[in-house]
Amino acid sequence: MIDLYNWHTSNGRKLFIMLEELGDDYNTHVINIGKDDQFAPEFTVINPNGKIPAMIDQDGPGGEPFSLFESGAMLMYLADKYGKFLPPVDDVQNRYTTIQWLMFQMGGVGPMFGQAHHFRRAKTQVEYGIGRYTKESRRLWGVLDGHLAGNEYMHVDYSIADMAIYPWTARYEWQGVALEEFPNVKRWFETIGARPAVAKAMGINLSEAV
Ligand SMILES: N[C@@H](CCC(=O)N[C@@H](CS)C(=O)NCC(=O)O)C(=O)O
After folding, report:
1. Is 70's C-beta closer than 6 angstroms to any atom of ligand 1?
2. pLDDT per position as a tens digit, 33-81
3. Are residues 119 and 164 in the same domain?
4. Which of 48, 99, 171, 196 is most buried by a 10 A CB count?
């Protein structure tokens, strides 16, 4: 059984999507980041960085509990454990191209869109921050649109790269983006969003659980 420590943000939703896609039972432990639960000692033993998501696989390697944080690492671990949504180690090119797009999300889409959300929605409007992160977010949308012009998914089949990017694109309005401006992302966005597991994961609201 997977114990998931989470909140319903874009990074958190990646893990809800993956676990809903896998279809196995999992326990969600609510970490309300608006109430600073992420800094409670009970949580920082699991993630010393004080951020969601994190997890403990009670049936980890050797049947022992295995604790993990960083959403990209968690997605890769679960993909390998279940043998789904990431090509296997002997399919080197497809595996690493999928990981490449996952890392594009972890190092680019997540941090840059996150800063755009922060500056564009802040009470104190800082023109420089709004301009810098809106421009960079829109540039990343352009990269995605160019890539998806010739690809149905981020790489070959639906994978953890799609799961990682989707919840961030779902906040397009917070990034100053209209979906119609990026028609290839829009087509992909609608395909991913139509998956029942994705729709269920995107509808989770943990504030209703506390
Ligand atoms: N690189 C980390 C980022 C995690 C992250 O930034 N989580 C946010 C929510 S989306 C968080 O916990 N924020 C609370 C805080 O910064 O205090 C990952 O992908 O897991």
Report:
1. yes
2. 999 999 999 999 999 999 999 999 999 999 999 999 999 999 999 999 9
3. yes
4. 99
Nearest to 178 by CA among 149, 137, 118, 209: 137
Question: How does DSSP classify residue 107?
Answer: I
Does the Cβ of 38 fall within 6 Å of ligand 1?
yes
Q: The domain spanning residue 186 has which CATH number? A: 1.20.1050.10
Same domain, 151 and 115: yes
Tell me if 3 CB under 6 Å of ligand 1.
no
Mean pLDDT within 183-191: 98
How far is the centre of ligand 1, averaged over its atoms, from the C-alpha of 168 (Å)? 13
The tokens for 41 are 């000692």
Per-residue confidence (pLDDT) for residue 121, from 0 to 100: 97
Task: Round to whole Å and give the CA distance between 20 and 26.
Answer: 9
Q: Is 169 in the pocket of ligand 1 (CB under 6 A)?
A: no
